[in-house]
């Protein structure tokens, strides 16, 4: 028969001797309903139910968190799942990493008893195709966006030391609408641009390094060919002579050309001026 126990004050059930109780209390019934609030002050709460339903739409974790570096999230026990899905026999957690200030989905050796989650490796998260700008992007969305992009206002390829960014056959990178292609590398790095086609509509080529050389090299026994006019700006001083010929322009002198050269193997590196046809003719007549 139904029975009601009513008291005029607080009611305490304590199992065992002592002020804190030393024995267990087992409630064996079809249903236990708590009409008021339920507060559990123990160290651990274990729920063996096969189905758990929570009406509260906002589930608060780490409620009394007062630490400076406390991770919090949901952990899934994977005991006995060794090798499942090619994953190690670790638990998996979706949690807020307080140290990195990011959400992570990761395998972990942690059991949830501490305040830190030690990840062994990150795992994949599968989401739907994005619709809003703030939605997480899928790999398919990014691949489609890149392959279908006709133009880009900003495009960058970057890699750590030893990493190569590869564009395979039939791939195309088009850079249009800008004024410059800029590269940034330290003095120990080398940037090489190899082209299998002609460069057209180039207005200027300059070296960005102070006092650096600009090198034009033909392949093998080929030559560097200039089809039209080659113009020299006037040089204020004579360059230092080396074992190669340096051709430059200065104020015309005895040769009437203003085109000079120096080479350490010619006249001990002294500056020489090319002679004009008129001056050469005059000299030929004068010398008989």
> What's the rounded overall pLDDT mean?
84
Shape: rod-shaped
Gap between N and C termini: 147 Å
H/E element order: EEEEHEEEH
Strand content: 5-15%
The oligomerization state is single chain
Low-confidence stretches: none
Give the number of DSSP strands: 7
Biggest beta sheet attributes: 4 strands, antiparallel
Secondary-structure-based class equals little secondary structure
**Percent range of helical residues:** under 10%
Structure description:
The chain is mostly loops and 288 residues long. Among the domains are: 72-122, no CATH class; 232-288, no CATH class. Helix content is 7%, strand content 11%. It starts with 71 loop residues before the first strand and ends with a helix.
Q: Quick recap of the structure?
A:
With 288 residues, the chain is largely without helices or strands. Among the domains are: 72-122, no CATH class; 232-288, no CATH class.
Give the topology.
Layout lengths: L71 E5 L14 E7 L4 E7 L10 E4 L16 H9 L98 E4 L9 E4 L9 E2 L3 H10 L2
Keywords:
288 residues, little secondary structure, four-stranded antiparallel β-sheet, 2 helices, rod-shaped
